[in-house]
Amino acid sequence: MESIISQSYEVHFGELAKAALKQHIAKSNYSKVFVLVDENTKKNCLPFFRNEILDYPVDSIFEIESGENNKNIGTCVKVWELLSNQDGDRKSLLINLGGGVLTDLGGFVASTFKRGIDFINIPTTLLSIVDASVGGKTGVDLGVLKNQIGVINQPVMVLVFTEFLKTLEPRQLVSGYAEMLKHGLISDKAYWDRLKEVNRFTDAEEIQKSIAIKNEVVLQDPTEKGLRKILNFGHTLGHAIESYCLDNPEKKTLLHGEAIAVGMILEGYLSHELKGLSRLSLEEIKTTFLEYFEFVDFTENDVDAILKLLKFDKKNTHGDVNFVLLQSIGEAVSDVKVPDELFQKAFAYYKEQ
């Protein structure tokens, strides 16, 4: 499978990924090679990584706790201290072996340790492969507020091994599928049509296509000044929902893809009201996501609390909440202001059975 060329690095797959890693380490003369894992990837992915991928001695393996609730500065401090205690210097390499939480955090740690060391991302979940693998976004949450602290900084390379998908429970695969479906909604109707008709969670060609769609957007707008904003479709309300459920013990904690699936239905409704998305397309979006994702029940109090979180969204400017909406399936527009009265209507539409 051909590699995908991004800004200053490449995304490699399978055997090409193994060869690229071996060649890079052989020529780079790193003083130390560190690997960052969590308890899940240590058990399920590290043995394969060490036996089948990395033909080089590792100086230290650092383990952090998995989960969005551990994606914070406190965890970063622990990893910075581990790097320092193990004599990490500016010629060290950090390999991030894990899902999006780990690669986001590991990339941020590497980008700020000694003012920046090299890092390589090896995403191990479907979500991290199709989303976090491209774009250079690194960072952590501030309390329950998603990705408030971070920098855009590119890895040396990204290595994709679909073998890791075999270690995932179905819920994690479906979560990643939400981002693949999103890529179709914002820029490629034919891709959306293929994905919604057939379960293609682990189809290597479709995974590569999803990465390529995101990469095309990022290449045109690396620092999210314009076009790249379309990648946030479903995320404005979706992130608020994810944060609210994470902080509310009475609500089931949602995976990222589960939250943005709800967000895409809600923002699909806003698209119908404000940008001319057809009613037929709106129903198609709702039906598709509810086929794969469990319905989430929101009370009036839940909705009020979720809407209050919108003020913390990263895309906001001058006090305005900015949305990405769809004019049609495959065509998105950004920086849309939404009248307050439509939010309640959007949730009411989501609740309609």
From TrEMBL:
Its cofactor is NAD(+); Co(2+). Its EC number is 4.2.3.4. It is an enzyme of class 4 (lyase). One of its GO terms (molecular function) is 3-dehydroquinate synthase activity. Residues 62-173 form the 3-dehydroquinate synthase N-terminal domain. It comes from the Bacteria. Keywords: Cobalt, Lyase, Metal-binding, NAD, Nucleotide-binding, Zinc. Catalyzes the conversion of 3-deoxy-D-arabino-heptulosonate 7-phosphate (DAHP) to dehydroquinate (DHQ). This is 3-dehydroquinate synthase. The gene is aroB.
